[in-house]
Amino acid sequence: MQKAYKLLATQKNLSHNQAKALIDKGLVLVNGKKLTLARTELPQNTHFSIMEIPKPQVLFMNDELLAIDKPAFIESYDLQAYYQDDGWVLLHRLDKETSGVILLTKEASAFSKKAKEAFKRREVYKEYRAVVSGIIPESLSINKPISTIKKGFARSRIDKHGLEALTHIKPLGVVGKKTLLEVVIATGRTHQIRVHLSSINHPIVGDSVYGGISARRLLLHAHKIRLLQYEIISPLPKEFIL
Hints:
Elements: E1 2-3, H1 4-12, H2 16-24, E2 28-30, E3 33-34, E4 41-42, E5 48-50, E6 57-61, E7 65-70, H3 76-83, E8 88-90, E9 99-106, H4 110-120, E10 125-133, E11 140-143, E12 146-149, E13 155-158, E14 166-175, E15 178-185, H5 192-199, E16 220-227, E17 230-233
Parallel strand pairs: 9-16
Antiparallel strand pairs: 1-4, 2-3, 2-5, 6-7, 7-9, 8-9, 10-15, 10-16, 11-14, 12-13, 14-15, 16-17
Helix pairs in contact: 1-2
């Protein structure tokens, strides 16, 4: 038996730091399942596979707005680094394993100020797709307050003393014991969709933090956003096709 990151480094000709970084990013699979702890003890003959991250794609760009199709496993602020030399900054963010449309604007521009105000006034329409465990037969709204602890790794929970959080869900398809959902959020709390779906006993597939079954990634995708006069849509990744 040996620590996972050391085995990975040996097999893939990597440094220990490179191997740890790949595991920490969620990109290493063992027998088709994501490896989450770099110091896990594993047999010498363990076979590893490393997932490749596709490059971010531009969905729309003009002088005031840049819309990017963010792949899973890229941090939002790392994504900003691709474009900040041209003056683009994030308007909002997505969790690392959440894919889909993310918006950037020119810092301190007139449009940026209007866009930020629209987010503050909850005038931005945000629609997601999620694959969850279990069968959800009909549309429903989840109105449960959420509190978040941000010490190191952020984690949220349902809390009657927390902040208002409202999520609307609609089933789009069912295969076996999984449901593909349309999810629209009226508020934007940390991990809101993940916590709300877990609270009704239908966690998102791949969400190890909130009780989801194991998968290569968190099956949550930012599908559509409407901001002021713009509507941007990100195509559904193949892993969401049930």
